[in-house]
Amino acid sequence: MLFMMIVKASTNSEGGNLPCPELMDAMTKYNEDLVEAGVRVMAKGLHPSSNGIRISYPEPGGKPVVTEGPFKVDGLVAGFFLIDVKSREEAIEWALRVPDPQGYGEGQVELRQVF
After folding, report:
1. How far apart (Å, rounded) are the C-alpha atoms in residues 53 and 71?
2. pTM score, whole prediction
3. Burial per residue of 63-84, b for 16 or more beta-carbon CB atoms within 10 angstroms, e otherwise
């Protein structure tokens, strides 16, 4: 079963503020644990939305609209882990082990099953 752990963006991640070295080490260790367990398919961070482009479709059948970032922080994604596990419960267990991805009390991870 594929699951995506979506790391939500925060004011700090959008500002390009990196976590402290201790948190970076904890995240490296977590990634190593995922690899050693054979469940990590991919894990990546994203550039801030100031480098992003949004394509929207405001009218059915109409032309798409291109908007350059930055975008409002609420709902943005800062990175993700894609894991292949045996059950929903195992996915939750791995998600609970993710170190606070922001390190400023703003960390949030959303777990979603992939079709």
Report:
1. 9
2. 0.89
3. eeeeeeeebebeebebbbbbbe
For residue 15, how many other CB atoms are within 10 A of its CB? 11
C-alpha span between 27 and 76 (Å, rounded): 20
- φ, ψ at 82 (rounded to 5°): -110, 120
β partners of residue 65: 56
Residues 52-90: pLDDT tens digits? 999 999 999 999 999 999 999 988 999 999 999 999 999
Other CB atoms within 10 A of residue 13 CB: 28
Which phi and psi (to 5°) does residue 39 adopt?
Answer: -110, -20
DSSP character at residue 10: -
